[in-house]
Structure formats: C-alpha cells, structure tokens
Task: inverse folding
C-alpha cells in the first residue's frame, strides 16, 4: 500500500501538511523536538493513510515522500 | 511505486527559509517542471537578492547570481549567447517590482525569450519586513506600521502592467495558499517554461506567497490571509496569452 513518510529531522513543524491531509491523520509532535528545535509532524494513524500525497504537495521543505 | 519523491533537480541542501514559507514550494515546482521537460542539463537559473538569494545552492542547475533586480538583464545576455539553453529568473517583489522594475519592463518590451518566476509576498522578507511596492492597502510593515495608506502610494500590479506590452507573450498570476492552487501554479510554471522551449517569447508567472515571519502570522493564518485578502487585490488568472490570441484570430 502507498503511504506517506515524513522526515522528522528535516521537518520545520510548520503544520501546512496538517491542514492539507484529507484524512486528518497528521499532527505536530507534543513530545519530540528534532535537532533543528522544531516539533516535527507525525502521522498518527498510518493505516488510514490513502497515499494521496496532498501533504507532500504543501510541504515547503520537501520532507515528505509517498511510496 | 513512488507517488511522490523529491526531484533530483533540487540539491540535498536544506532550505534556510522560515517554517511554512512557500518559497520552498515554488522552488520544488520549478525544479520538477524542468526535470519533467528533460532539459536539466541545459538550464541556467538566475537567483535574485532577497530571501531566495541562496537559490543557487538549492537548484541542481547551472546558476548565476544577479545584482539586486538585474536578473532579467542578466537572463537577456545569457539567453542571447546560449539560445539553446532554458534560462529562468527567480525573483521576489522587492527585487523585481522595485529596484528591478526597469529591467523587468524592458525585458518584456523587447520580447526576450526568457521565463520569470515572480514571488509576490508583499514585503521585503530578507531585510526584516519593510513595505514592498506590492504591499496591499492596509497591510502592516515596519515602514508603514499602521498599515499601508494613500501616502505610501498604491500597490503595483505587475501582470496587469506587463500584459499591456506587445513584447509580453504570457503573464499569469497563481497562488500557493492550498493544494489546488499549488497544483495550478505548477501548470502555469510549466507553460511559462514550455513557451521558452518553443521559442515563443517573454513569459512571467507571478506566484502569491506568504511571509509568516514578517506578516507576524502562523503559517496557516498566512495562507488564509492570501486567500481572504491578498487575492482581492491581486486576482488570479491569465492576463495575457498570445496562444489564445492566435486561436481566436
Ligand atoms: C543594491 C541593493 N539595494 C538594497 C539591498 C537591500 N535588500 C536586500 S533584499 C531586499 C528586498 C528583498 O525583498 P524581496 O525581493 O521582496 O524578497 P523576499 O526577501 O521577500 O523574498 C533589499 C531591499 C541590496 N541588497 N542591494
Ligand atoms: S498521503 Fe494523504 S492521507 Fe496520507 S498523510 Fe499525506 S495527505 Fe494524509
Ligand atoms: S509541511 Fe513539511 S515542514 Fe511543515 S510540518 Fe509538515 S512535514 Fe514538517
Ligand atoms: S522572511 Fe519571509 S520570505 Fe523570507 S524566508 Fe522567512 S517567511 Fe520566507
């Protein structure tokens, strides 16, 4: 199945992917801080991901791959 | 099967842009478009002065750096010496619509066969948020802290202005405020590049982008601001397309 994968170290926690996901399964981490100092985006329910890549279209830092 | 992977026409260097700044989205669209045309090895990009001054580090093409506002003049020279190369300028609104207005207008009037990607975020991002010629009425900046008013003059509409010039082949304004608009921006960028490959002439795509940092907004709110405020002043659409004129003749 085609799924999105977020590079949590490259992520800047901007949240644009959160607003783009039609399944509402992305949120910014409340516990993790990455090496850049941001709260990275995480997929909370990977089973529900439909691989539509809308999150990747909105990510300004190209940190989402879908395959 | 990969549905979405990073184009090889972007380098591995992380963008220095602020979180949520859609400069990054437009970089990706330009790189993908050129990769899809299969002309990466024959492409020369010109970076501006502004937040995207380091664009030469991010695009995997031969790149040059122009003095502030001079990218269309540089592109003119490069394109005339290398007519078989794809030459594009990537410029902010301070760069293109203020200090570089003369270069922009005259490149259009000469009908230079180049492609300009014009980033309109309504502010001078790099220097800390001063008013740009494109700042909309009422919008706050460090040099108009109470919001732009008549004393500051009126925002410049580049696509509308260039559309009046015979030398302009194609001028379209697009946006980055949601997925649909980003996909539409990619279509327009591809058309502007294809026009050059087909030797049609001067093509410009104005892309409405955000500056969450100097607009003092969250990234999400900055996109809402484009959708609710900015496009009222800068309507989206095609302002000139000589392809359509030929078809309708
Ligand atoms: C000749 C010259 N004048 C002024 C400057 C200062 N300067 C640097 S960037 C900039 C404006 C950048 O704004 P814009 O083109 O809108 O790009 P952004 O940073 O918003 O992406 C100015 C005025 C300069 N570098 N060189
Ligand atoms: S691929 Fe689609 S469903 Fe999956 S996380 Fe991204 S936007 Fe959501
Ligand atoms: S859009 Fe990209 S940078 Fe922004 S939160 Fe999502 S993955 Fe991170
Ligand atoms: S200052 Fe504004 S335009 Fe520059 S990188 Fe930050 S958000 Fe983008």
Result:
């Amino acid at each position: 199945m085609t799924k999105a994968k977020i590079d949590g170290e490259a992520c800047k926690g901007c949240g644009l992917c959160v607003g783009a996901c039609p399944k509402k399964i992305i949120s910014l981490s409340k516990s993790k801080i990455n090496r850049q100092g941001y709260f990275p985006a995480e997929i909370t329910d990977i089973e529900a991901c439909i691989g539509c890549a809308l999150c990747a279209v909105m990510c300004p830092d190209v940190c989402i791959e879908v395959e | 099967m990969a549905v979405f992977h990073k184009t090889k026409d972007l380098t591995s260097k992380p963008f220095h842009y602020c979180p949520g700044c859609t400069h990054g989205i437009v970089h990706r669209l330009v790189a993908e478009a050129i990769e899809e045309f299969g002309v990466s090895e024959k492409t020369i990009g010109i970076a501006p002065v502004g937040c995207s001054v380091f664009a030469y580090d991010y695009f995997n093409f031969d790149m040059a750096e122009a003095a502030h506002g001079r990218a269309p003049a540089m592109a003119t020279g490069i394109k005339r010496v290398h007519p078989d190369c794809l030459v594009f300028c990537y410029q902010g609104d301070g760069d293109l619509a203020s200090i570089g207005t003369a270069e922009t207008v005259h490149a259009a009037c000469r009908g230079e066969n180049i492609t300009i990607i014009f980033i309109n975020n309504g502010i001078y991002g790099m220097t800390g948020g001063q008013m740009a010629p494109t700042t909309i009425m009422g919008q706050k900046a460090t040099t108009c802290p109470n919001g732009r008013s008549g004393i500051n003059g009126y925002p410049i509409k580049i696509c509308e202005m260039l559309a009046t010039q015979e030398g302009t082949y194609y001028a379209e304004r697009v946006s980055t405020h949601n997925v649909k608009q980003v996909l539409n921006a990619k279509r327009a960028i591809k058309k502007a590049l294809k026009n050059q490959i087909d030797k049609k002439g001067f093509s410009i795509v104005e892309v409405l982008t955000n500056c969450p940092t100097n607009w003092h907004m969250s990234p999400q709110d900055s996109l809402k601001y484009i959708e609710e405020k900015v496009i009222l002043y800068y309507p989206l659409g095609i302002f000139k397309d000589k392809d359509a004129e030929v078809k309708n003749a």
